[in-house]
Amino acid sequence: MLRAKVSLDREQQSSYTLWVEAVDGGEPALSSTAKITILLLDINDNPPLVLFPQSNMSYLLVLPSTLPGSPVTEVYAVDKDTGMNAVIAYSIIGRRGPRPESFRIDPKTGNITLEEALLQTDYGLHRLLVKVSDHGYPEPLHSTVMVNLFVNDTVSNESYIESLLRKEPEINIEEKEPQISIEPTHRKVESVSCMPTLVALSVISLGSITLATGMGIYICLRKGEKHPREDENLEVQIPLKGKIDLHMRERKPMDISNI
């Protein structure tokens, strides 16, 4: 039985390869070796890291002539986890300003756009408290960041704006946060009884990353490679475009009752 001598962290190293030798007590002694690849499962232990805006004190000038529907800024975050643990959603959970509801955020991209034409009464500082959440299980993790938008023709008095930013904002957290559901591209493939290293029970595509899931193990497959399985007469191919194809080289009945 193999046991870890130290704590393992998938974010530091995702897999280990071991060569194991078994030797009998005969004379002469006979032996055989086996290669063992250990893939670490991901746990949701990293909250999203907000890269932009860089701080709660940064701000952006929004011209009053900005047309509705125009993007004004964005919130950008990354997550060190994988799979659904790294799928990020953005939402505005608090607002303060002359008419901060004039701005909305795209839950998938983090782009913030102007919803309504700005009026003379909208001049001034608008503050949006943005929540950045992952889709981790059993509990999602999140971070927050303040987005500051200053509506004016010019930035004539930066010290005045900075003094406003230094004040503790009185922002009421919205009682009901927007319910966001982001479904990755997901398609079923044939369920087969096989080793868990290559053949998957389902395929999930998240942007440019393709993950296969099988027997409870997440496996990242390299694009452009073919993985034949002679015992099941299967072949898994990952073309350069990133979509996984699992097919039988020769069609035959399969027993999937024990899966």
From TrEMBL:
It holds the Pfam family Cadherin. It comes from the Eukaryota. GO terms for biological process: homophilic cell adhesion via plasma membrane adhesion molecules. It is found in: Membrane. InterPro entries: Cadherin-like_dom, Cadherin-like_sf, Cadherin_CS, Protocadherin/Cadherin-CA. It is a single-pass membrane protein. GO terms for cellular component: plasma membrane. Keywords: Calcium, Glycoprotein, Membrane, Repeat, Transmembrane, Transmembrane helix. GO terms for molecular function: calcium ion binding. Residues 8-50, 54-171 form the Cadherin domain. SMART domains: CA (SM00112). The keyword Lipid metabolism does not apply. CDD domains: Cadherin_repeat. The keyword Nucleotide-binding does not apply. The chain crosses the membrane at residues 198-221. PANTHER family: CADHERIN-87A, PROTOCADHERIN-20. This is cDNA: FLJ22218 fis, clone HRC01636. It comes from Homo sapiens.
